[in-house]
Amino acid sequence: MSTSSAGHYDLIVQQLVPGYASLARLSVALLATSPLARAAGATVLVAGCGTGAELLEAHAQRPDWQLSAIDPSAAMLAAAQQRLEQQPAAAQGSPIHWQQTTVEAMQAEASFDGALSVLVLQSLPDDGSKLAFLSALARSLKPGGQLVLVDLMAPERSPLQSQVDAAWVQFQSASGIAASEAAVAGLTQGIHPIGTSRLAALVEAAGLSDPAPIFQALNVQGFLLQKLP
Ligand SMILES: C[S@@+](CC[C@H](N)C(=O)[O-])C[C@H]1O[C@@H](n2cnc3c(N)ncnc32)[C@H](O)[C@@H]1O
User: How far is residue 30's CA from residue 214's CA, in Å, rounded to a whole number?
Assistant: First the structure.
């Protein structure tokens, strides 16, 4: 992603993803109540931090957390760092450990009490890449550590699905994106959504518990998972 698209990201993601404004707050709140990450000074991984929405929220809710923010995009990391520097709440938080890398390439065995992955898995093809990503996340967690995973999911078969699809276009249009723009927007390109049964199979293979549903807005769904002992 280029610097200009990183700058554009914060505007367009809210117009494109229903419920986005609540996602970071909800994800952090879930982890903050988890058995390991509720402890003071817990270590938390923000995988695919993008422009820093989850980091800002983590600083606001849990300034004591030891945050590791990773993203392979230098432009996204730079945008996140700049955004955090501008927020007074960020100054209260513990220093963030920034790393330009993917989850798969990260060296972190059982290091984290919790992890957040918001709108990241969806961009990886289901050709072994999704499993590698989830396995790396599972490896990075301590046993009992929890993961909040949010993604655009493939719809289950339903006679009303075409209406749900139409509602997404209507949502984007009401948010200020023309239907023609939505079709070409970078955020909708290169997405590889899977269904919930496929997700359940992948997370089991990765060593994570069954995904517990915690959020849904149209086809955007969130899950809470735990690393199995
Ligand atoms: C759609 S953005 C989501 C950013 C942020 N989590 C949010 O909710 O706004 C997805 C981010 O994941 C990053 N990403 C893609 N593949 C990744 C991987 N394998 N490991 C870690 N981050 C990845 C991208 O560079 C991008 O910044």
Answer: 9
3 state DSSP class of 12: helix
CA distances from 52 to 21, 32, 223 (A): 13, 18, 20
User: Both tokens of residue 59?
Assistant: 């600083």
The full set of domains in the chain, from first to last, is 3-226 (3.40.50.150)
Contact between 1 and 73 under an 8 Å Cβ cutoff? The reply is yes
Residue 115's nearest CA partner among 22, 17, 208 is: 208
* pLDDT tens digits for range 49-82: 999 999 999 999 999 999 999 999 999 999 999 9
Tell me if 173 sits within 8 A of 179, measured CB to CB. Answer: yes
Task: Report residue 162's pLDDT band, with 50, 70 and 90 as the boundaries.
Answer: confident
Residues in contact with ligand 1 by the CB-under-6-Å rule are 13, 47-50, 53-54, 70-73, 76, 102-104, 118-120, 123, 133
Atom of ligand 1 nearest to the CA of 150: 8
Strand order through the sheet with 112-118: 97-99, 66-70, 43-47, 112-118, 141-152, 220-226, 212-217
